[in-house]
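To: structure desk
From: M.T.
Subject: fold request, one chain
Message: Could you run this one when you get a chance? Sequence is below, nothing fancy, just the single chain.
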Amino acid sequence: MYKFMFITNQPYAWYAGLPGVAVSVTDLQVQVIKLQNYSDYVWVELRCHSSCLLDHPAYNWMKNGQDIYSKTAASLSSFFYPTDWISCAVKGHEKFPSPSVYAPKLPSVSVSPSAEIVEGSSVTLTCSSDANPAANYTWYKEDGHKPLSEDSQLVFSSIQSSDSGQYYCTAVNKLGMKKSGYKRINVKYAPKCPSVSVSPSAEIVEGSSVTLTCSSDANPAANCTWYKEDEDSAKASGQNFTITDIRPEHSGSYYCVAQNTRGYQNSTLQLTVVAGVGRLAAAGVTAAVLLPVIVFSVFLWIRKKRKSKESAESEDRTNHREQCLPDQRQLQEQDDLQYASIHFNNQADPLYSNMRAAQPRRHTEEQEVAEYTAVRFNRGSEAKRGRSHETEESSCGLYATVNKT
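Reply: Done. Structure tokens follow.
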């Protein structure tokens, strides 16, 4: 934009012509019309173009700085290698050629910020390449085939430890493609929760050797320190903690602390030591000796209890018989007994009388049948007499010996 202006000798007295005159200069442009891709080169059709040339002048084509004299038309068909560059100029004005067209040059990759990358921060990767026509960009991680972004920038708003790795970009235009070198992203982060293990993982026997192992994902690598619960001093430093000739007093909870410049984490495991083979054998022998003794003692105690119970029951039965049955020896001494019933009228306590036993007779003499009289107790009325072989209402009879006449 050009403007005419004049200035007077008076303060702030100046004048400009508005809006002014706009001037634009159009350079020649090489346009890529079509192409055919091959393994090592492409076959292209180019056209030299300018919007300010109304007629059709002759053109001069140059490839890699060398003139192609046979080509004076506005169009050019030629093979094109990735390292080639081509331009055109109006014949007679070779000092003012068009910008050259070429495939992308080796892309460069930059990272922002350039300082240490910490987990959770924002990181931007930028890809740039010199190319005409302008290149299109694509981002990849390591040897992955899935594109991460189809832009010149790859942005991590909150980068994570899993984003660590190597990245590269590709720059592509119609004349070719170029791949950048790898750019490594190293994300620093505090230790993750440590993983603790014990070896051997089987039962820990007294006298054996045991190794505790601590590992943690961290960047930079974490330093591991072993502690035992309720003890202030460290037991060992390093990833592994070995206890040789382990004893039952080594049982307890152990924890590993993993620490780096970004932070720390800890994890706990329980260690239980069982008695050694010698102690187990001694315990087995002791049990083998004591078990029969205990079994025998229990047997004797049960037998004694059973005898005591049987004796008590026998005594109870004897007492019961003595109360309810007559003396067997007395019955054996008597030949024939006569039983008489005795009736008590309205007496609270019955009185008993024994009568003299009859003299036994010889078995050779004729014996008479004894008379049996049932004894009944009737309160308030005279006892009825009758002959019977059993007592109906009394569980125990009252017996008296009577001498027969």
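Reply (cont.): The chain has a mean pLDDT of 77. Let me know if you need anything else for the meeting.
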